[in-house]
C-alpha cells in the first residue's frame, strides 16, 4: 500500500494573510433525499452533526457537514476513518436511493488565516465577503478565478477553501498572489 | 452583466458563475418525427429582441439547471424558476406583463 499524501504536501505562504494547504482530510460526497429521516440518521452516523439547511455548514472541529446542493452533502471527517464512516452511512440508508462516495483523494483543502483573509477571497471570487453578508455557518460554492471552489468560515475566523486536487497548485498560486504583502486593498475588514 | 438568482440554492450571482444553456421550453422531436418537426426542433430558434426565455445552469455552484426570463435588450432579469416545468409559471408571466405590457414569446403571452 502506498503512503497517501496531500496535493501540495502542506505548502504554506505568509503574506498579509497566511495560506496553508491543510493536508489530508477525509471527504465523503453523500447524495439522496436530504429531507428524509434516513439522511438525518446517516448524517449523525457519519459526522454526529445535523443535516445542514440551504447553503449551511455544520462544524465540529475538524469534522464538518456541508450543504452542496438540494440533494448533495459533503461530509468532512478524519482521513483514516472514511471507510468506517461510509459503512455507517450505508447502514443508515440501507434500501434507500442514495450515494456515498469517498472523494478524499480528489480534493485539496486550504486554510486562510489572518485579519485580511476575507480580502484574499474577495479578489478571486464574485462573492460579497463582508462579514455581514458571509459569516460563520455559511458555505459558498462558486468559482475562484477560473476553477470551481467552495469556502466557509470556521470558528476561529479562518477561511477554509476546498477545490479539486487537479487544480490545487493553481488555487495555491492564486491565493498566494492575492495575499502578497503590499497587495492589500483595505476595503473589507 | 446579468445578475441571476438560482432557484435551487438561492444564490444571487453574476453571470460568470452560471452557464447559458440555450433557449427554454423547446419540445424535443426525436425518432419517429417527420422532417419538418425535427427541423423546427433542431434549427428554428427564437432570436427575440426583448422578452426571452432561457435555460441556465449554476455550473460554479450547486450545479442545477433552471429557467430564466429576461430582456435581451436591457439585460433586465424578470425572474428565474424551476427547470421542471413546461411553461413559465404565472407569477413570472405577471412580472413580465408589469414591465413589458403586450409581450409575447412563442405560444406564451
Automatic annotation (TrEMBL), chain A:
It comes from the Bacteria. InterPro entries: SoxG, TrmE/GcvT-like. It holds the Pfam family SoxG. This is Sarcosine oxidase, gamma subunit family. It comes from Roseovarius aestuarii.
From TrEMBL, chain B:
Pfam families: SoxD. One of its GO terms (molecular function) is sarcosine oxidase activity. InterPro entries: SoxD (IPR006279), SoxD_sf (IPR038561). GO terms for biological process: tetrahydrofolate metabolic process. This is Sarcosine oxidase, delta subunit family. The lineage of its organism: Bacteria, Pseudomonadati, Pseudomonadota, Alphaproteobacteria, Rhodobacterales.
